[in-house]
Amino acid sequence: MVEKKPAKTAVKKTAVKKAAVNKTVAKKAVVKKAEAKVAVVAEAKVVNQATPKKAPARPADASVKKLNVTLVRSKNGRLASHKACVAGLGLRRIHQTVQVIDTPENRGMINKVLYMLKFEES
Read out DSSP for 7-68? Predict the structure, then answer.
C-alpha cells in the first residue's frame, strides 16, 4: 500500500492559522501590559495625592549636646573605612571644623579616626 502524504497546501494553511493565533495572543499580551501600566500610573497619582505634607523641621534644642570636630591630618593614604568615617562626620578639608550631635554612632566614628581629629564638647 502507498501512503498518502498530506497536501502541501493543507500544511501551509495550518501554519498560517498557528501564526495568526500567535499574533493575536501577542497583541492581547501587549494590551494587558498597557492596561497594567495605566493602572500603576493611576495608583501612583492616588498615592501622591494621599501622602501628607512633611512636618516643618524642629528648632534646634539647646539641651542637645554637640561636638566640635576638626580634621588636623590628611585623609590621603588612609584606609577606606577611615576615609568613610571622616566623610560621615562631614569633614572634607584639613582644619575644617564641623558640629555634630553627640550620639554613639558619631562617637564611634570619632574614636576610629581619633589620630586624625581634634574634638571638643560644646
Answer: PHHHHHHHHHHHHHHHHHHHHHHHHHHHHHHHHHHHHHHHHHHHSPPPPPPPPPPTTS-EEE
Q: In angstroms, rounded to a whole number, what is the distance separating the alpha carbons of residues 119 and 92?
A: 15
> Global pTM?
0.50
111: helix, coil or strand? helix
Task: State pLDDT tens for residues 57-82.
Answer: 666 667 899 999 999 999 999 999 99
Closest-CA residue to 114 (of 76, 69, 80)? 69
Over the stretch 76-114, which tens digit does the pLDDT of each residue have?
999 999 999 999 999 999 999 999 999 999 999 999 999
Q: How far apart are CA 119 and CA 71, in angstroms?
A: 9
The number of residues making up the chain comes to 122
Cβ 81 vs Cβ 116: under 8 Å: no
